[in-house]
Amino acid sequence: MEELADLVSDSSRGSDLSAGSADSLSSNKISPKRKKTLKTTNAYFYWVTREQGSFDWFKGVMDEVAELDQRGVIEMHNYLTSVYEEGDARSALITMVQALNHAKNGVDIVSGTRVRTHFARPNWKKVFSKICSKHCNGRIGVFYCGAPVLAKELSKLCFEFNEKGKTKFEFHKEHF
User: Fold this and answer.
1) DSSP character for 130?
2) Tens digits of residue pLDDT in 81-129
3) Nearest to 44 by CA among 174, 169, 175, 176
4) Backbone angles phi, psi at 62, to 5 degrees
5) What b/e string do you get for 136-154 counting C-beta neighbours within 10 Å, with b at 16 or more?
6) What is the pTM of this model?
7) Which is nearest to 64 in space by CA: 28, 113, 8?
8) What is the C-alpha separation between 142 and 155, in angstroms, rounded?
9) Cβ neighbours of 79 (radius 10 Å)
């Protein structure tokens, strides 16, 4: 079972300052160096899984986040990789039924949540491009938990986008 979650958040520098660092406190010295804190302005969550049942254990959390996000700062995406890509004739019927049900009832038939499920794998280059254009000159944290193959791809995309633009992506992988 392949399960992973990606959270991409845009952080902009705030005016709040915090004194010192963990290293300076452990050596009992007070450092004159001050760090700027980061303020998260948006979060983009991508849940990618092979099996529909994998959405079940996370269903309550997705619904709660969707309900509590009054300002629309959190964008959530579900991807089911065992179904053919949207637009493919083999997945046309489920795509139509899903779209109609979501529009009518506000619930996705695949995940059972308010978060609409997309089919196939995300096009990560498009995801990064969209976030990059939305948050020009921003500092974006990419947090990943899952298979090492995708970790490598996401890390590479962070590097590529950092090389060609002013928006900076910082890749972080969860090890467990």
Assistant:
1) H
2) 887 766 777 777 877 888 888 889 888 888 888 888 888 889 999 999 9
3) 169
4) -60, -45
5) eebebbbbbebeeebbeeb
6) 0.70
7) 113
8) 9
9) 18
